Structure formats: structure tokens, C-alpha cells
Amino acid sequence: MDYLNKIKIPQRIEGLGELAYNLWWSWHPDARELFKKLDRSLWKSTEHNPVELLKGIPYHQLIASSEDSGYLSRYDAGLAAYKKATLSPTTWFEKQYPQQAKNLIAYFSLEFAVHNSLPLYAGGLGVLAGDYCKGISDLGIPLVGVGLMYPQGYFHQKISQDGWQSEIYDQLDFDNVAVTRVLAPDGKLLTVTVPLDSISIYISAWRVNVGRVTLYLLDTNLDENPQAYRGLSARLYGGDREMRLLQELVIGLGGVKILRALGLNPDVWHANEGHTSFMMMERMRELIEKGSTLQDAMDSVRRATVFTTHTPVPAGNDTFSVDLVEKYFHNYWGQIGLDRDKFMSLGTLDSDKSSFNMTVLSLRLAGYCNGVSQLHGQVCRKMWHPLWPDLPEDSVPIDAITNGVHVLTWIAPQFSLLFKTYLGENWIERQDEPSIWENLHKIPDDVIWNTHRWLKLKLIGSILERARQRWSQEKVATIQPLAMGALLDPGALTIGYCRRFTGYKRPTLIFRNMERLKKILNLDLQPVQIIFAGKAHPNDEDGKRLIQQVYHLAKDPQFLGRIAFVEDYNMHLARDLVRGVDVWLNTPRFLMEASGTSGQKASLNGVLNLSVLDGWWCEAYNGVNGWAVKEKEGMNWEEQDDNSANTIYDLLENKIIPLYYDIDAAGTPQGWVKMMKETIRSNTPFFNTRRMTKEYAERFYLKALDVVKSKC
Ligand SMILES: *Cc1c(COP(=O)(O)O)cnc(C)c1O
What is the pTM of this model? Predict the structure, then answer.
């Protein structure tokens, strides 16, 4: 492996090199410890990046660890666990479906959030894809991922004194992250080309190891390409619609070609969102080139294609003007035996022939389609009924598989240890069995409470540290550390509102009645504080204004420093937040949250959800595991906002605050802890990637494999 030559590691512990290049370490605390123990301060300053750590650490320190018997026994155990997890042929999938274990599924996504050191994601969609791959790896489902390598990734967020978001793009240093170039057998860079307008563009790929799953991330920054196209994949969502179309062309057409060039011939192809669905077209083109008729090619593609949609509103779907599509596809449609009109009709609706809609294209070319919660499935069937006008709405072939989160990624290690003790050594393999969670009541209340309190202290400590750094190193105005949370109180009931800032998520709903909120935050001896975090999309001016509004209130002394806005929400910060607050607030406008996953992360750490009954929460809420805000249909938006804000205030005043502050002699709020246990017990066995990936495998992949095979 060429990358290992760049790192000098003593032979006794040389396995650290391979481990650093497989992000499997990131969801295994014992493996993380191996790096952390080498040099704690480097671990921290590299933001938990083992590749950078191994490159930066003085060699004598590595020698010292390689001669330390305590370290060595950890190392041997850690490496053995890694080998077993990534190589042993005894996974769930191999045991259950030995006949299919040699098949291959390709999973296409524009974003993958595996670890913060690879910032190839903007938000929920990417986190889902990253969690998905980890869950797939844990089960041994044979899958490769295809995405784009964004050397500048998504932006870092800073907020100015007047509350305006600025976007900072850092260049990724490929030598310092867990990526390697994909080479051809002759040792040269593997490249493929796809036609763009009048020229061909060259594409290469990077490899990222995620346990057993390999991700191939495409890159156009090659000398062979004209300057204008080299930066095509530089940023996630950084450009205009034309840039975006080109990115989708690269992943869709280039992704198929790269897999072929690697000798990989997937049996099933899965598009995570419509952004990647040109891959379906490219496979049609391949079949037609080999002599299929158009109809046969389309049928074959459908039989082997899964499509997951995440958007609940027509406006959220990815569309391009047909003129733009024409510019790049006018040489292409002939190759699949179509003329302009027939080609455009694949992606347009009769009601709007001017926009080419990637969701429409995907629904037409994929045989297995799904939304990401049961409610979202219904919304999709209604929204896309026009594509199947002859069917009754509830027979529209869009299924639903509810999202889940990767438990080991999001759970606090302290809770993980408790579960190991009380639920059983193998709780993680049995996480999707409700019966093991019945043992949760055996954990003493004060143990749960103290664990939670410690996580809250840690969260607030890290928020203070961020504020301290910005103040001391960057000399921001004195008011800014206050707005960033310098006055947070670890004893106060803490609400978290953390996600992308955009209109439909209504981040400012809780400020609807300012006077009432002020009273709630300032209740005598029962203080409440709210932590906000989240980025606005670079082109979303409204989203930025919402951030500004919150930031202004965070600076306002009337709120006594009980509102904080923490900058640069990302996976790293999210991990601390979903474990460290008491209540996780979510206020999407009803039917606009396809699933939502951050509340699931909170729930498995015993953080209680206070949320509009939408997306996943509509399935999860059972009356005693959190609080629900019901939105009524038939109200206009103003009325809905008033109604929901008032429900939230009522719940806080009458239920949430009294319960939180009702403590026993030892300082434990028993009623609260009971609810914490209930949320963990009722939600964790279902809203996890193990259940979710099994569903994708059994309801889609295996079915598709059966059909594909029977046709051969
Ligand atoms: C989980 C997660 C999300 C998704 O959160 P929602 O509340 O479901 O929108 C977005 N960003 C980050 C960094 C996350 O970890």
C-alpha cells in the first residue's frame, strides 16, 4: 500500500497504519483509544484524525508506545477486533443469505458523512448515507458507495457580530486524510471520460474504506481537463444550476464507468436521492450499445434499481431547465435510441414540460422506490400520483422504509458501557430486538442521571472552549462569546435546536410570543436555556436572516444569556449536542420533514424529544416517551404557528419544567429519568441502521437479486 510508505511506524504496531485508513476506527471506542493514547493533545488538535496524528507524532513517541505492555495489549485486542469485523465471513448477511453473498450492490449518493475529517456532507442526507454504509458494513451486506470528492467540502460557518453567516472553505489536504487514489493495474491513475457538451471530461477516483464498504469518490481536478472543469467537484452545493447539472453528470455517468473500469459489475443499483439518477440512464445506454431494444433496456434497469426519495414537497425536488439538459445531452439521447421529446419526457411531467425533474426520472426508471418514514411514504404517493394516474393513490408504487441512525456513531461511550453491563455483552448485535431493551429498568436511576449530567457538563465545557478561542485568539467583540454560550448554566434545563436553518424548519417558532418565552426562561429557581446551532445553505438568504434573528436575541440582555448560538454545526458538534442537552426541540412545518434523524440520535442518549408530530416522530411518539406538538390541517400558516408555539409554551410550563426540577433527596429527578429510560427503550430497537439496512436488504435488494437472476 503506497500510503503506508508515507508513514513511519514501528513494526510491532504497524497495523495502526491500516487502521487509520479504515474509518471503521471512528465508530469503535477501543480503536479510537489506540490513537488517542498515542498523543492526547495531537488527537485533540487534529480533531480526531488518525492519519494526521500518525504523520505528525514524533517517532520516539511511537517507539515508546510500541514498548509499553499496557498499550500493546490494547493494540493486539483492537487489531484483532478490526480484522474480525472487516474480514471474518460470519456476518449476518453471509449467515442468512450465503447464496447472495457474492453479489454486489452499488449505492450512489452526492453526500457521505462518515467522519468529520472528511467533510463531504452538508446535512441530514449525507449523515444518513454515512450511517447507512456503516450499518451495511456491520451486517456484511456486499455494497460499494459512489460519490464525489469535494476537495473543499462544505463550508465552515462563522457568525459576525451583527449575526451574519460567513462561509469559509478550507482546502482538504489529501495527504492528511484517510483517502487513497484509485490506480489502474499498470500503476497509473485510473481515469474514465464522459462527454460534456462538446468535449470529454476526465474523471479519476479516490478510495475511502468504511469497514467492509468501499467508497469511490470521483474527482475532476486533472491536468487533462480544461481549467473550467477542474473545479467542478471542488465544493458541495457551491455553484449554480449548471454546475450542479455537471456534478450530477459526473457522478451518474462517470460513476458507472469507474465501477466498470474497476471490473465491478453491481447486480443492484441504489440511488440515494434523485441527484445521482443519471446512472440509470447510463446503464440503459450500455445495454442499448450491446444490442438491447429500448424497452428491454428500460425493463432491465428497472428490475435492478432502488430509488430513495427524501423530499416531501415538489419545490424541494432537483430540477433543471430542459434547455440546460439539452445543452449537455443532445449527443446522448440518440445513443439510447431517443429523440429530444422522448428523452425529455422521461424527466418531465405533462403539467410542466419546461423542467426536467430528477425525482420524476428516478421514479420512472427505478423498480423499487421508497420514502423515508411511513408518513413521508403517504406524502410521496399523493405527490407523485400524477405519474400513475390509473392507480388509486394508495397503490402508487412508492414504499416507505423509515430512517434509522448508526447507534455506535451517535451513542455516548458512557451509555454504551452501561448497556453492555445491563443489556448484555452483545447488545450492539441485538440492538434491533425490543426484548433486550426491557432490561433497561435495571440501570439505577442515579446512574443514568449522573451519566447524563456528565455529558451535559462536557457539552457546555466544549461550547465555552469554542467561545474562549474565538474571543482570545480572534479578538471578536466581547458580546460575541456571550452570544456563543459563555453564560450557559450546567444546572439549567437545556433545550437544543440544532439543524439546517431554513424556513420550513421554523427555527424561530419558539420566539413567536417573546414575552411568554422570557417568562419561561427566567422562572425563579427553575431556569431554562436554549442552545441553537446550524448552518444556512450558502444561497439561502432567508435562512441566513433566521440565524441573524436568533443571534440578535442571543446578544440581548433581556434573555439573561440563556439563548446561545453555537457556530459551525457539523457531525463533531452534533455528537456532543445530541448527548448533552435535556430536550431536543424540532418544529418543522407539518408534512415537510421527510424523516429527521437528529431526534433519533438524541433519543438513544436519553434526551427527550419535543417535536411536531411529523416524520419519524409521528411513528415514535407513544404518549410517555417525549412530547408532541400536533399540527392541525385546515389552519392557515399563521394560525398553525400560533397554535404550535402556544402548545410548546404550555408543555414547558405545565409538564417539562416541573418534571425536570422535581428532584429527590439525592438530586435525581426520578420522573424525568423514567422518561429517559422510556425513550431509549421504545425508540432504540427500531430507529437504528441495523433495522433499516435489514429492511432495504430484505425488501429491496434480495427481491431485486431474485428477479435479476431469474432473468439471466
Ligand atoms: C443528524 C444530522 C443532521 C440531520 O438532522 P435533522 O434534525 O434530522 O435535520 C444534520 N446535520 C448534522 C451534522 C447531523 O449530525
Answer: 0.97
